[in-house]
Design a protein that fits this description.
The chain has one domain: Winged helix-like DNA-binding domain superfamily/Winged helix DNA-binding domain (Arc Repressor Mutant, subunit A, Orthogonal Bundle). About 60% of the residues lie in helices and about 10% in strands. A three-stranded antiparallel sheet has the order 1-3-2. By secondary structure, it is mainly alpha-helical.
Length: about 120
């Protein structure tokens, strides 16, 4: 979309009271940065596929790799990113490590994203 394709005001007039009200509600810059970083994590289809797998069950890396027809190494790499972003959690059971969604927020974010693209 070229710049001239974007509708703009014909005159320049700032609505000071609206700008002030919006600025008072604006989160701090570091919070906005963290939010942008979180959404970057959702920007990879492999990570989205892993999250969908974990919607169904708590699984170990071997199970996830088999389900998605990928290597354990590739899955482990993506799980590390998902864990750092607090989207998944893990627990050890003997020699196996099982992964699950961190909380219901993850399911809600994905569901709302799907609803948005399906509109």
């Amino acid at each position: 979309m070229a710049l001239h394709d974007v509708e703009c005001c014909d005159t320049y007039q700032v609505h000071e009271e609206l700008v002030k009200a919006v600025n008072e509600k604006m989160p701090e810059e570091d919070e906005l940065y963290d939010l942008a970083e979180l959404f970057k994590v959702f920007g990879d289809s492999t990570r989205i596929r892993i999250l969908y797998v974990l919607f169904e069950a708590e699984l170990c890396v071997c199970d996830i790799a088999q389900t998605l027809n990928m290597t354990q190494s590739a899955i482990s790499h993506q799980l590390k990113i998902l864990k750092q972003s607090r989207l998944v959690k893990n627990r050890r059971e003997g020699k196996q490590v099982f992964y699950a969604l961190a909380d219901d927020h993850v399911r809600t974010i994905i569901r709302q994203g799907r609803e948005h693209i399906e509109e």
